[in-house]
Fold:
Amino acid sequence: MHKIIMTLSVIAVVLGAASAARAHAFLDHASPAVGSSVQTAPAVVTLWFTQDLEPAFSDVTVTNQAGQRVDLGNARIAPGSPAELQIGLKPLPPGTYLVSWHVVSVDTHPTEGTFTFEVGGG
Ligand SMILES: [Cu+2]
Structure:
């Protein structure tokens, strides 16, 4: 019996090491896409990460070229999709917008980054 317990704990350690070695929550893709130019102003920015997020410590803001917030301050993890972060937007005039995100993945590792997208004026 003792031997079985020892074997199980070795397996647990190996599995733990494997999951710790996985990448942290980096941005996988976003909508609007990173660096893209869209003709229609989006109502929401959605970011998909490579790992599930810790909701209490994950946030995103969107600012215009003057540095003013244009998001609605309602960042949230999408229901049923724990690696997906969303935030609503005010009506956006043409311009370039900066998306700044900082998240903590479920493995407790913090990551952050920025990207821009452009709303075209024609
Ligand atoms: Cu990590």
